[in-house]
TrEMBL record:
UniProt record, GO biological process: methylation
Active-site residues, Swiss-Prot/TrEMBL: 275
EC number(s) on file: 2.1.1.210
First and last residue of the signal peptide: none
UniProt name for this protein: Demethylspheroidene O-methyltransferase
GO molecular function: hydroxyneurosporene-O-methyltransferase activity; O-methyltransferase activity
Amino acid sequence: MLDRQRPLPAARSHPGLALVEWRNRLIASPRFQALAQRLLPGRWIARAHARRLFDLTAGFVYSQVTAAFVESGLLDALAAAPLTGEEAAAAARLTEDAVTTLLLAAASLGLAQRIGDRWTLGVRGAALLATPGLGAMIRHHRLLYADLADPLAMLRRSGGGALARLWDYAPGSQPADAATYSELMAATQPMVAAQALAAYPFACHQRLLDIGGGSGAFLRAVGERAPGLELGLFERPEVLAATTASPGIARHGGDFRHDPLPGGYDLHTLVRVLHDHDDGAALAILKASRAALAPGGRLLIVEPMAALGSAPEGHAYFGMYLAAMRSGRPRDPGEISAMLQAAGFARVQPRTTPLPLVASCLVAFT
Ligand SMILES: C[S@@+](CC[C@H](N)C(=O)[O-])C[C@H]1O[C@@H](n2cnc3c(N)ncnc32)[C@H](O)[C@@H]1O
């Protein structure tokens, strides 16, 4: 459950509101639309808006085409070798007609491409293949889209749906398979670790504790870059029991909402953890980190944040994902900084990452 309480702005109190209302009336007027399509600059703008509206309307279909492309095995099969329609049908276990429908749809999205009588990957198919964990995430979205089949029902529901049942720490959810969940996290971890490694000099620390670090994938990535660092993992005992220990990584079991964190680490990381928790629990985690850090220690927060810069639509994804999960919410850097200060950190500094859509970074100083 969300526990944020934001006051609603008083109606019409903001000076910009009247201007925005005027703009919206103008855009919605059929005369304005007709005029915009007759004049050249207007026509370009109208086309760009129409395209964007089409994407909004058809986005679910794009996602399902992508899911079918991955789940049918066509992504891997076309990566291995170009295929005729007949071969593609056999690889996907579809009729030739059905595979042609799927491949033409995939081609229109840049996932596949037809050259002569063969099908191969398109530019987006090649990029998908090169993005570690994206295929696993697309398969995992089956649960999210089951919940989003009726988005209003999902938003109105007080208990969890298909996605919430996977996350066994989400309120109201069933016990779930910690290993499956940790595998998904580990599969998608390389693109997240790449953001943190580009943004923060881990080698300037002696001991790093990754809090809620799953199976240790983030620690292994940092360890490769900064081999002198001593590494520690804090996780729920059931996740530790379900995953294999990595050499050189000390494991500490516990619940970060209630248990003290182990001392002696000069850097803590929270990677894709804070946004999973409602405000009360999130503040408890930050306080636990502050209490365990010695003076001079730092906490690095790595996750997609609500201010996504050039890709604000990422908020629609993370906001709805966490709502379906029934726990947490995306927060912007300002909100997280205020929580860090409430938890006792002295100062917070943002660090630029290459892809904020994947993760942004904040460093908190004791
Ligand atoms: C979204 S996953 C992120 C895992 C990893 N940091 C990553 O980015 O791949 C959140 C992690 O927090 C752990 N976690 C959730 N609640 C916890 C708690 N109360 N105490 C300790 N760990 C917890 C989960 O088990 C899970 O591994």
